[in-house]
Automatic annotation (TrEMBL), chain A:
Mode of membrane association: Multi-pass membrane protein
InterPro entries found in the cross-reference section: BPD_transp_1_N, MetI-like, MetI-like_sf
Cited PROSITE patterns: ABC_TM1 (PS50928)
Name of the molecule in the record: ABC transporter permease
Gene3D superfamilies: MetI-like
Recorded family membership: Belongs to the binding-protein-dependent transport system permease family.
Domain ABC transmembrane type-1: start-end pairs: 98-303
Organism the protein comes from: Ruegeria haliotis
Keyword Membrane tagged: yes
Cell inner membrane in keyword set: no
Annotated compartments: Cell membrane
Pfam family, one: BPD_transp_1_N
TrEMBL record, chain B:
Stored Gene3D superfamilies: P-loop containing nucleotide triphosphate hydrolases
Recorded topology in the membrane: Peripheral membrane protein
One Pfam family here: ABC_tran
Organism lineage string: Bacteria, Pseudomonadati, Pseudomonadota, Alphaproteobacteria, Rhodobacterales
PANTHER family, sorted: D,D-DIPEPTIDE TRANSPORT ATP-BINDING PROTEIN DDPF-RELATED, TRANSPORT ATP-BINDING PROTEIN
Domain of life: Bacteria
SUPFAM superfamilies: P-loop containing nucleoside triphosphate hydrolases
Main location as per UniProt: membrane
Protein's name according to its UniProt entry: ABC transporter ATP-binding protein
Family affiliation: Belongs to the ABC transporter superfamily.
Keywords linked to the UniProt accession: ATP-binding, Nucleotide-binding, Transport
Subcellular location: Cell inner membrane
Residue ranges occupied by any ABC transporter domain in the UniProt entry: 6-261, 279-520
Gene Ontology molecular-function annotations: ATP binding
Length: 318, 545
């Protein structure tokens, strides 16, 4: 077998193993919390008898391991269980919400990743001169301000004062793509500002590291322009560290958007999770946890595989 | 247009240095050098490290490496002073009119791109040729430079071809845009001698066939004598002597040039073997973890007390692996090692402190073999504490004795490695190993990173110390001149096997086996026309077979 395929399969297997570990951890942690779903349902009206009855009805009186295996079996068949609070099928609700979150994350990534890499290249090209310093200062400022504050500031100035976009990022199926994009413009802007600095700094550092090498000197002595030297000769050799940081930030765009979704009242996974955490809806929290874990592990696995593929020694063995 | 391709007048080059603990200051590293190079001629720039030869070569492309800056003078290429021209014109000059071949092609090729893309890049980018024409030209050059499968080798990545092949690809890269001038910066220094000869011949023929002018930079006078028309000898940024190759080699005027020409003046009488060897290596076979082939096959050698066994071979011959086995870093699969009359444990961890003390090692890179944050006194004092429990005045006295033995003296005691020259660092490493009062020292390429005159000093020192301390050396090297200078017996290694072993006079005199013959005849000799003689001789032999 080609060594690349072998490595990729190894990573895949490792990713799946990790996902099982994460699911066990999530299940175990919710188990360890005081109270259970039966208590949450009954709330103030709980008596020892009614609790025992409900537990038996929900199967909560059985050992944790049995319930974990059942839960896991359900997930593997696409059954995430039903919500305690609204009795809806969780898979259905998550499907719609996840679609919205991915839609937002996709557009935020489409704007921020190329922009971050371009700014990184620019910072290297003019290193230690004013464009470099300006880029660093601006991106570090935006990452340092809490995202909810940026969100409210943008809502106040751009949505309320100027009136370009709606302050609420409500989307539904009846909207056209253009209307949807208009609706999510502000959250995309906020997310971009949050993730830009990290990716830009990593691009800059990774490329500067490569700029010391002899083949960059060779490229300079070929009479290439500075930007060509960086783009054509330095960037391809800096892919691995950059991809790692990009994927971490993509994962953040999916998993970490809770605050931004709440600020803009966007109907995504974050809103969904927050709503049900406050209602102590354990099955929903579990399902969200697993979905987030899967996305996180999946994206990092892609980063690993891209980093492997970026190495010509592995891609083209002797 | 005149016949002068490159005219350099009173070239001055400076750099900013950052001495530890002091303010940065500007120094001058080339002090007013002048020369002319005619179209189609080759000028050799020769000197030791720090002579400024690479810096001068790069100045002909208006380029300064690191913080180096051209501070004065004129550099005329094709009738214009490139130090006064525009930025755009300099970019056209680089990669178009003047190209560069570096010492390490392995580092100078981008690992992420195919060889062909890199070879044609300058020609295409400078709009000299279309991509298609440039590729055709590259294939012609690959063939001319003797590369295997010239039509397809360009589709490979740099790591997929050998070091010698990559060096030829680099030459093709430099010649592809049809430049007027090529700067060759130590293009064969990193290669094995048997590979060097082919690359040297390929470069020489390519220069002749394309009619390109060249600056050939090297520290090896015997090499430059083979390829250049004129030679300029440089020392510390000054011209020492400038003349035709014939005059420099056969009739050097300056003392420094004479020293360079007659380097390796050491004469060492070979000693007879004693009845009891200090080290005997019996039937050692070894492989590295994770590899499915042996890198050493049944190696048998002996080293006698107070003598030197030179282990000579090219890269990949297994000579350094042998050192790792003897020191216990790599336990062998088979065979055993007897040292000072006792069997050595194959595993380093199970060796006694006495075993460790009596068997010391000196490395090629003295810089990285010393802790940069310890003073010379601390470095040499450590084995004294560790093995002999010496403290205070007694230790200090012994350190001073050792510093005297290596001809440095007490004043070096409080210096840090960064304040020493390459030769001085290696001397400190020698003192550190001698401090343990060893019976034997393994010297792994200890002079390879040093300039010839400095290396000579180290070899002389090692021989003197051998007389005083009666220590045996296992001397690992790829350099046959070093072998001649220092050894009593020699083991020639090739692909993990000892192909020839015996006293110095036996090994270095005919009848030879094929490999030793090839190795010995590949060492450049300091006379004009040597390269052609060897190549013609080899052609005749292979025709005869």
């Amino acid at each position: 077998m080609h060594p690349i395929l072998k490595l990729v399969f190894q990573r895949l297997a490792l990713g799946i193993l990790l996902l099982f570990g994460a699911s066990a951890l999530i299940f175990g942690l919710t188990e360890a919390l005081p109270g259970d779903a039966a208590q949450a349902v009954l709330g103030q009206s709980a008596t020892p008898e009614s609790l025992a009855n409900l537990r038996e009805e929900m199967g909560l009186d059985r050992p944790a391991l049995t319930r974990y295996v059942e839960w896991l079996g359900g997930i593997l068949q696409g059954d995430l269980g039903t919500s305690l609070t609204n009795k809806l099928d969780i898979a259905d609700s998550v499907g719609k919400r996840l679609g919205n979150t991915l839609f937002l994350a996709f557009w935020a990534a489409l704007v921020s990743v190329p922009l971050a890499i371009f700014l990184g290249l620019l910072a290297v090209r003019y290193r230690n001169r004013w464009p470099d310093k300006l880029i660093s200062a601006v991106t570090l400022t935006t990452i340092s301000i809490p995202e909810f504050l940026i969100g409210y500031v943008l809502i106040y100035f751009i949505a309320v004062k100027i009136g370009w976009f709606s302050p609420l990022a409500m989307v539904n199926d009846s909207m056209s793509l253009g209307q949807k994009l208009n609706a999510i413009a502000l959250p995309v802007l906020v997310l971009t500002m949050v993730v830009l600095a990290h990716m830009m700094r990593m691009t800059r550092a990774a490329i500067l590291n490569v700029m010391q090498s002899a083949y960059v000197e060779t490229a300079e002595l070929k009479g290439l322009s500075n930007f060509m030297v960086i783009y054509r000769h330095a960037l391809p050799n800096a892919v691995a560290p950059i991809v790692n940081v990009v994927m971490l930030n993509l994962a953040y765009l999916v998993v970490g958007v809770v605050v931004v979704e709440v600020v803009f009242v966007y109907p995504g996974m974050g809103q969904y999770l927050v709503d049900h955490v406050t209602k102590r809806d354990v099955p929903v929290v579990l399902a969200c946890g697993v979905v987030f874990a899967a996305i996180y592990i999946g994206l990092n696995m892609i980063a690993d595989i891209v980093a492997i593929l970026a190495n010509p020694r592995l891609r083209h063995p002797k | 247009m005149s016949d002068i391709l490159l005219k350099v007048r009173d070239l001055k080059i400076g750099a900013t240095v950052y001495p530890p603990g002091e303010k940065p200051r500007d120094i001058e590293i080339v002090h007013g050098v002048s020369f002319d190079l005619e179209r189609g001629k080759v000028l050799g720039l020769i000197g030791e490290s720090g002579a400024g030869k690479s810096t001068i070569g790069l100045a002909s492309m208006a380029y300064g490496r690191g913080g180096v800056e051209i501070t004065g003078g004129e550099v005329w290429v094709n009738g214009r002073d490139i130090l006064k021209t525009t930025h755009g014109d300099i970019r056209k000059l680089r990669g178009g009119e003047v190209t560069y071949v570096s010492q390490s092609a392995a580092a100078s090729f981008n690992p992420a791109k195919k060889i062909m893309d890199q070879v044609v890049e300058a020609a295409v980018e400078q709009k000299k040729f279309t991509r298609k024409v440039a590729e055709g030209r590259a294939r012609e050059l690959f063939a001319k430079l003797g590369l295997p499968d010239p039509d397809n080798i360009g589709d490979r990545y740099p790591h997929q071809v050998s070091g010698g092949q990559l060096q030829r690809c680099m030459t093709a890269l430099a010649l592809c845009p049809e430049p007027d001038l090529v700067v060759f910066d130590e293009p064969t220094t990193a290669l094995d001698v048997t590979t060097q000869i082919d690359v040297l011949m390929a470069i020489k023929e390519a220069i002749r066939d394309t009619g390109v002018g060249a600056l050939y930079i090297t520290h090896d006078l015997a090499v430059v004598a083979q390829v250049s028309d004129d030679i300029m000898v440089l020392k510390m940024g000054d011209t020492v002597e400038y003349g035709t190759t014939d005059q420099i080699i056969n009739n050097p005027q300056e003392e420094y040039t004479q020293a360079l020409v007659s380097v390796r003046s050491i004469d060492h009488e070979e000693k007879k073997p004693t009845p009891e060897p200090v080290l005997s290596v019996d039937g050692i076979t070894a492989r590295y973890k994770g590899l499915n082939f042996d890198v050493l096959h049944n190696v048998n050698v002996e080293l006698h007390p107070g003598q030197t066994l030179a282990v000579v071979g090219e890269s990949g011959s297994g000579k350094s692996t042998l050192a790792r086995v003897i020191t216990g870093l790599l336990p062998p699969r088979d065979g055993e090692i007897t040292f000072a009359g006792r069997k050595l444990s194959p595993d380093l961890k199970r060796r006694s402190r006495e075993d460790l003390r009596e068997l010391q090692m000196i490395y090629q890179m003295a810089d990285v073999a010393m802790n940069p944050r310890q003073t010379v006194g601390t470095i040499i004092g450590r084995p004294l504490e560790f093995y002999f429990n010496m403290r205070g005045a007694e230790k200090r006295k012994r350190i001073i004795d050792l510093l005297d033995e290596i001809e440095l003296g007490e004043k070096f005691m409080d210096r840090y490695p960064a304040e020493l020259s390459g030769g001085q660092k290696q001397r400190v490493c020698i003192a550190r190993s001698l401090a343990a009062k060893p019976k034997m020292i393994i010297c792994d390429e200890v002079t390879s990173a040093l300039d010839p005159l400095v290396a000579d000093g180290i070899l002389k020192l090692l021989l003197d110390l051998q007389k005083i301390e009666d220590v045996a050396y296992l001397f690992i090297t790829h350099d046959l001149a070093t072998v001649r200078a220092i050894s009593d017996s020699i083991a020639v290694m090739y692909q993990g096997r000892v192909v020839r072993y015996g006293s110095k006079s036996e090994v270095l005199n005919p009848p030879f086996d094929d490999y030793t013959d090839l190795l010995l005849s590949s060492v450049p000799e300091m006379h004009l026309g040597w390269l052609e003689e060897v190549v013609a001789h080899r052609k005749m032999e292979s025709a005869g077979n």
